[in-house]
Design a protein that fits this description.
Elements (H helix, E strand, L loop, with lengths): L2 H17 L12 H6 L1 H9 L3 E5 L11 E7 L11 E8 L5 E5 L5 E8 L2 E6 L8 E5 L2 E5 L5 E3 L4 E4 L4 E6 L6 E8 L8 E2 L28
Antiparallel strand pairs: 1-2, 2-3, 3-12, 4-11, 4-13, 5-10, 5-12, 6-9, 6-11, 7-8
């Protein structure tokens, strides 16, 4: 992905959140220079994979297969003295797919916090023909494998461990502001993709970094 695209996507996502009355922490707006000055905060965020994440999943077509995330809270997987939970903001555009994947550790709730309708599909990796039962806002729903479940603004679904899932914005309904509440998130070790080449994007530095991604936050003294 081009750095200019990443810079623009972060700015647009922050504006979309503000339009939906969602306030972000001050560090979400910091430029690279502010992270460099505030090294204690920067080290804290980087160690917990907190901050911005913009990815095309290694495919090179962000509009079709991509995702913008801001990790707001997180612990460190395996550290008993850390938080046991995580919270993320996600921006999902119309027909922009986050491809099929599952987690072995992370149990998560996906919440449509505003905007368009979020479509989410499921299947069991051990039996791709088996029906899938999910819990959505207290309702038990039985789905055919890969049958889309529509989440309107305000609705949510629990994604069980070990269940493949993908999601995208419904065509014609507008982009979605999505919230994720989960167990501790570790994007380095707990994502198991069906097809995506890579969890993280390769960056073409066509312009300077404005707001860094979480793995670019400076940590050295």
């Amino acid at each position: 992905m081009k750095r200019s695209t990443i810079n623009s996507v972060i700015s647009d996502t922050a504006a979309f959140a503000a339009a939906h009355k969602r306030s972000l922490p001050s560090w979400a707006y910091w430029k690279l220079e502010e992270y460099e000055v505030n090294r204690e905060v920067s080290r804290y965020l980087n160690a917990r994979q907190m901050g911005w994440d913009v990815t095309d999943f290694g495919g090179g077509d962000f509009a079709a297969r991509g995702l913008t995330l801001l990790c707001l809270r997180n612990g460190i997987l395996g550290d008993p003295n850390e938080r046991t939970y995580a919270e993320k903001l996600l921006f999902v555009d119309e027909m922009q797919e986050a491809p099929f994947h599952f987690h072995k550790f992370k149990l998560e709730d996906i919440i449509n916090a505003g905007g368009g309708n979020l479509m989410i599909e499921f299947f069991h990796p051990e039996d791709e023909t088996a029906p899938v039962r999910v819990q959505a806002d207290g309702h038990i729903i039985d789905l055919r494998p890969r049958e889309p479940l529509k989440l309107k603004p305000g609705q949510s679904v629990t994604v069980d461990r070990g269940v493949h899932h993908r999601f995208y914005g419904e065509k014609g309904a507008g982009p979605c502001l999505v919230w994720e509440v989960s167990a501790v998130n570790d994007d380095l070790t707990d994502n198991y993709f069906l097809e995506a080449p890579d969890r993280f994007a390769s960056v073409d530095e066509d312009v300077a970094i404005a707001t860094p991604l979480w793995n670019e936050i400076p940590t050295q003294p």
